[in-house]
Amino acid sequence: MQDKIALTTNPAGMRLIAQMTLYNVGNWDRLRRYIGDSYGDLLLFASNPEERLKVFTTLHQQMGRLRVGQVLALDKYHVVVLMQSETGEILQVHDLTVEAEHPHKIIEYKQYEIG
Q1: Which helix (H) or strand (E) holds 113?
Q2: What are phi and psi of 78, to 5 degrees?
Q3: Within 10 Å of residue 55's Cβ, how many Cβ atoms?
């Protein structure tokens, strides 16, 4: 529980919580809008909201919902979080960095499976 609370103390953690909440409930229209509104221009140039949404929907089909397992690194504008699938069998790292300036758009986001 401490790890989840720690994520609410900084902009990067709050961005991750918002994104993963939409992912977990499967609200794909809102997640698409969230990506378009919350990702920085360079990330969107590299991969548009539709392409990013497809990654999330595929992930959801394979892993189901994800929950915070452990916060591995926490900085004001950067978080690295170990996420666990709802079955507990799959672990994934989510590494997210936001801009220092408000509205703290996501400027780097990586996710990868471990184990």
Answers
A1: strand 106-114
A2: -150, 135
A3: 11
* Domains defined along the chain, listed by start: 2-114 (3.10.450)
> Phi and psi at residue 20, in whole multiples of 5°?
-75, -25
Q: For the segment 63-96, what is each residue's pLDDT rounded down to a tens digit?
A: 999 999 999 999 999 999 999 998 778 899 999 9
Q: Which amino acid, one-letter code, is at 72?
A: L
Burial of 35 (0-12, 13-18, 19+ CB in 10 A): buried
d(CA 42, CA 106): 10
Cβ-based neighbours of 2, under 8 Å, separated by 6 or more:
none
- Residue 80: the pLDDT is 98
- To the question of pTM greater than 0.85 for the whole model, the response is yes
pLDDT in tens, 15-56: 999 999 999 999 999 999 999 999 999 999 999 999 999 999
Spatial distance between the Cα atoms of 36 and 89, rounded to a whole number of angstroms: 31
CB 77 within 8 A of CB 96: no
